[in-house]
Amino acid sequence: AAPALLGFDESIDSYCWARGGNGQHAVSCVWANVNILSLYGDEIPYNICRNVEWQVCAAKGALPGQGGNIIRFAKAPRTLELHGGQHPLGSCTGYHPSGCGMQGYASSDIFYMESCVYSLMCKNRDALWRLELGEDWHCEMDWEGYQQLRDYVIQT
Question: Where on the tree of life does the source sit, at the highest rank (predicted)?
């Protein structure tokens, strides 16, 4: 089985390299037998909606080769620092092809979003914020929370 793996780009790289991954980002994680969202180029371009779709698929256990609904974090969500650390929220310290500011964002901001999405749509959100690095976690769907997320996205 290849569980879903989330985190900052460099924490994902470190996780995959430590588990036998060779090469660059996506390739090393294939070798490490984990699923990551890695969309580059124009064929299937990255956007926030695809990111949330991938997260929902991971929560359902519907990613290719996932073999269950296991989700792991290469950086524990509880260690996120909004205003400090290596990637403060909004600091534009990750990959940012469109720049930052009002219309753009850096890849480092996405992990904050991913953690908040799971916190909203999963009943076991408290356990999410207690996880250790690399610990298995399963999202227990909170359909009211998911509905709130959907409504927020539609209204934005």
Answer: Eukaryota
